[in-house]
Amino acid sequence: MIAMSQQKTPSSGWDNSLFEDVSEDYSPPEAAPSNLPEIPQNSSEALAQLVRDGEYSTALKVKKDLEQLGISIEQDACYLAAALRSIRRVPRSPVNVLTPRHIHLFNAWAALVPATPAVRDDPFFQYAVWTKGNPHVTALQRSALKAAHMGYATQVGPVVVPYLARYSSTRAITRFMVAFAAADRSATTSTRQHKQTFKRLYGIAVRSLCFRSQARAAYDLSRYAKRQGYTVNQFTLRLLRSAVGTSYAEGARKLGRQLCDTQKELKDMPFIASRPHLLRRFQKAIDKGHMPTRHALRDFIRQCIQHRDDEAYNRLFALFQEHPTRRPYALNYWASVEIDYHLREGSPDAAFQAFYEIFHIDDVPQSVRKALRMLMNSKHHPRRRPKAVKDKIWPDSRVTVLFWRTLLPMLSPSQLGQAYSEFVSRFSSMAERRAYIRNPAQVPPGIARKMEKNLTDLSANRPADTPPPYTGHHFRLFLRAYAKLHNTKAIMKITRRAAGTKWRASRADVRVIAQTWANAGSGRRLMFLLERLRRDAMFERHTSAVDGYRDGIRFMMQNQRYKDAAVLAKQLVRRLKHKAASDPLLRLLYARLSERQHAKKAADSPREQPTPSHTRQRTRIGRDTLAPRHTRLRA
């Protein structure tokens, strides 16, 4: 630095010999990658990012703002997710179909998806039935075919096909089904899945045409579907035969013959495969650490029981029992399939005995253990294992659900109450024990209290690494059992106790609750229960409190309890902001209430008694007699 300071200022720059040689040590460091999220460059990228993040409501608002401002939106394949979501929320019901709002949203989002060459070259768009149709229907057909070419016919078909079959011409729906099937066939690699999907979709289209009184078009579509290999089910064939009737005798005769052939095929359906072949396939799968499908395993058990093939049955069970890596899981898998098979065949004793042979029975209520031991010595079980299972295991939640589902209908009301108390005790002890395993330093107060009272903690004998035997789905079994007894107080306790679990009320649960209160409860109590479920967010994804209120109103009206139905309707409109004018059920309720009110007023008001004819004559004579004399003379 001193030498540099003494040197005169050069006109051409500093002398580089004064510096050290440039090496890799002085290379500039590379810029570290930034962890900050990428900022969209324009509004179209921002909209696409919202759709990718799943913020569909915000994306819809942004899309409307961009359209109002006249800003063009670039096409992107991610918008297909928003289009599918707009029709996925349509209720799956024969009455509820696509509304204009759903169609507009689906078409608007699908228009932003770039068309593939397969869509542009689809011959369907060259037909006159498409070019001269209703603009809304044609746009819906184009959007559905675009989704089908991308492999989403299974999600779009069950919603779009009924609408098109109702509101488009018969030629158009036939052409559309041909193009729709071809698009899915080119996009789907699984031929079996494609066949199953379009057997269902052709059946939906045929039934929709029958409801439109287009029996001949429905018959032609069913015949074309059969030629293409998409045979509709027996229910659709019966409906079509009744719709055709005597108007088309030849078609009715062919449908009857096809229905007989279908029933014969179902009756004489061959097995999936022979038992030795299935046994070899299962052995290869188990050696690789895999499990056979439940359908194939159930079919193998059925064949062994029907043909009394004890050798094949015991050989396969030994493979499951001696599984190299996952023995408890393998035995639970086998037991769930076998118990489910016995329940479908109507043999609960065989299901109980299969449970007794494989699992520990400490999780079983004490009153049932003696009955299980007695069943062990009976001959109801169609298959007896040569010897007891070595080292019995603990059942998982799937097996216990099957067991309790079989057990509860056999219990009396008092036994059901005892079983529920024992189940709640075990469920609580299981939760406390799991909390104790997670944090041994803090002993839950429930375990200490049970130790003081010398109560038997049946779940304490289970190893820590075993899966939990109970879940929130077990509460659903008790809810259904008490609903058959019309016990509303017990249902209130069950829903209150299940609030801390992962149980969520499904659509069927809400219907069962509403029907129970309509038979043996008050409308206000049902209203309190639905409000508590809504407050605690205890409904499943596709279920809401509106469904519970509407079910309650419907069942109350069926039982002629219009006052309770009016209470529920008032709460539905006031608290949930439900629009009564757009709900046909509420309109029917108000009409019934108005009729009853008019009938009551008519019954309470005094009726005018008709005056007899002789009284009217006597009155007229008396009036003439009392008139003045000059008036009578003038007359």
From TrEMBL:
Residues 1-15 have a biased composition (Polar residues). Residues 1-40, 597-635 are annotated as: Disordered. Residues 597-607 have a biased composition (Basic and acidic residues). This is Uncharacterized protein. It comes from Phanerochaete sordida.
